[in-house]
Please model this.
Amino acid sequence: MTYLQNHKILSSTDLDQVRESIMNLASRHDLDVKGRDAQFKACVAAVQCGDLSLMHVTFGESRLSVKSSEEDPDGLLLYMVTSGLGVAQHCGKEIEFSSGEGFMRNLAAPVSATEDNFGAFVLRLSKDKLKNHARSLVGEDVDLMGLSFDPVIDSSAPGWNVFRNTVYYVAEVLDGPLRELHNPIVTAQMEDILLTQC
Model:
């Protein structure tokens, strides 16, 4: 299935072009295709939800090795896998993932992964923005100094299913009925929905 097809910003078999595009949207990723017969073709789509960017990436029928060093102490990347499978080493943990599952990458720590036929929604988040949003929901007196996320997401948890449904809903409406509506009030509401579910 194609997601955010009306917001496609790149379709390419050029690995350097794909690396640059992903670096501009999310963070630096060193991608390498494994195997001679791999059919690498990346598609990258992105839509703004207020200050957030909701992306969908696919890499064709290929096996990739991915490495990324620590970059942004305030940044997080939340991956919601829509196709394929893989395994990542991040924050001292080995994370296996496949379609329907997800994981959280802390951009303050390095990651390495192997991905097969990978496709995913990717949501770039700010720890400070999440703390401020959480305070607006639960009150100023809650200590959120130590706010952290386990990179392993329990895909059987009810909260994950709600989050997944929310991402699909936001992607569908921004790619369908709201795609021509450039209204900052609407996109801010979409941002609010995504932050609340996180």
Notes: The CA atoms of residues 70 and 189 lie 31 Å apart.
